[in-house]
Amino acid sequence: RNFEGYREAGIQHIVAEPRRYRPDVVLVLDGYNDLRLGASGIGPGLVGVNDIVKVARFEGVRVFIATLTPPNVHATRGISNSVITVFNDGIRAMARGENAVLVDVYQAMASDPNRYNSADGLHPNEAGYRKIAETFLAALSTELENASHVPSRVR
Q1: How far is residue 92's CA from residue 102's CA, in Å, rounded to a whole number?
Q2: pLDDT tens for residues 30-42?
Q3: Is pLDDT of 64 > 60?
Q4: Which class for 19: exposed (0-12), middle (13-18), buried (19 or more C-beta within 10 A)?
């Protein structure tokens, strides 16, 4: 599962972080690099995300897992919307199965994806990063204000 030289090293780094820093929550937005392989990257990408989620949950960390953003419809190098949609369906199922909080970044940006994506088709622009942050913040606020299982220092 070593795609473009980052997956295994990235997973090992992620595995160590909850043990080292003892966070109460972890925010996961991952999978784009796997999808650069097209549809063949969906399965390995979901496995990689699930590895991160399982490690965090094993360490008692509350997981917030995001869908991937929609592509810039005018970009020539981006990932196809159909591949992102299938991947995001897997993320939604994973969030349900792993009792993680789903952060639907795709839906938050779907009304105007070109407004939030750079011309390269691979990265958000400044407005896109802001929208991602706002979407995570809304999910964190909702979940942590209503959760009895979250330590009081996080509320």
Answers
A1: 7
A2: 998 888 888 999 9
A3: yes
A4: exposed
- What's the rounded Cα separation, in Å, for the pair 154 and 47? 29
Q: Contact, 75 vs 34, CB < 8 A?
A: no
**pLDDT tens figures, 131-149:** 999 999 999 999 988 765 5
Starting at the earlier edge strand, list the strands of the sheet with 101-103: 25-28, 62-66, 101-103
pLDDT band at 1 (very low <50, low <70, confident <90, very high): very low
Q: Give the integer Cα–Cα distance in Å for 14 and 139.
A: 22
Single-letter code of the amino acid located at 122: L
Across the chain, what does the average pLDDT equal? 84
Residue 18 has phi, psi (to 5 degrees) of: -60, -35
DSSP secondary structure string, the chain? ---TTTHHHHHHHHHHHHHHH--SEEEE---HHHHTTGGGGHHHHHHHHHHHHHHHHHTT-EEEEEPPPPPPTT-SSS--HHHHHHHHHHHHHHHHHTTPEEE-HHHHHTT-HHHHB-TTSSSB-HHHHHHHHHHHHHHHHHHHHH-SSS-TTT-
